[in-house]
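anyone seen this seq b4? input:
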Amino acid sequence: MLKDYLWERKSWMALFLFLELFILFVAYLDPTIPFSSILYIVFLTTIIFVVFVIIRWKKETTFYQRLQEWERRLDPISALRAASPLEKIVERVLASQTEQWKQELKEHLATLEQEKDELLSWIHEMKTPLTAMRLIIDRVEDENTKAQLLYEWLRMHLLLDQKLHQRRLPHMENDLYIEQVELEPLLINEIKPLQSWCMQKGIGFDLQLDVRSVLSDAKWLSFIIRQIITNAVKYSESSDIVVKSFMKNGHAFLQIQDFGLGIDPKDLPRIFEKGFTSTAEHQNEAATGMGLYLAKKAAKPLLLDFHVESTPGRGTTFTILFPQENDIIRTRRM
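predicted toks r here
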């Protein structure tokens, strides 16, 4: 304790010692100053200084001891180490418990990974009966029945697709392949499965593509556009959905505009939240609130930015802003 106390005040002690030696040095050089008198004064001041340090040390040591006692009370392990002879036993028990927790954590992580693999396998296996179901539906002659079956089949297909991509999202960056993606075939591939649903609702598509290709990942860009187009069809009736691509300020834009129900202004800031469904259509059991949430998450590694404008009763416009090539190259290097 004394050693720590003196070490913390070494600068003050060094200054005092320097002043004493400096006074003696001046008295030695100056013959008009009696050296013996100065030496006596230095001796007295040194004794006074030492006494002062001892008194202050005793007073301040009491305070430091109280601080240490408070630390022991706040840290029961430290208190046990300081006061108990069972320190080694306690440390051994804690080490053993820590190893047990680590092992249990590894087992839980392995179990979660296995469940993930099993779910992905199940999703892929479900695609086989879905394909067979689609072939059977195509042979149904009653158009009303066929349209209803196709709608339910499409719902299952889209939900499985969402779940598949949701499981892949945490490792999405390992799966990216950035290239020039042709927009027209990509959009047609996403619109074609919705054809029967669109015909039933009287919905058409108007493609106005001034920009023919963009730099992105084709698979994940398809998934993002699928969520937006599906929502546009779901909340529209007897109207066209306009899809435009254009350049502005050196960036490519893709705009998807519908003329359906629109989004309430109070809902607009929350449409990308997980599980959020429209307050106006809150009773709609078909809505999962996951499509736009997953699209937003998938857009982040692709450096895509969303801008949404909507007027209730007049429709919604989703605009996707694509990054410039240099931005993507810089991000991939990082």
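The first helix runs from residue 2 to 8. The beta strands are 179-182, 204-209, 213-216, 240-248, 251-258, 305-311, 315-321. kinda curious what u guys think
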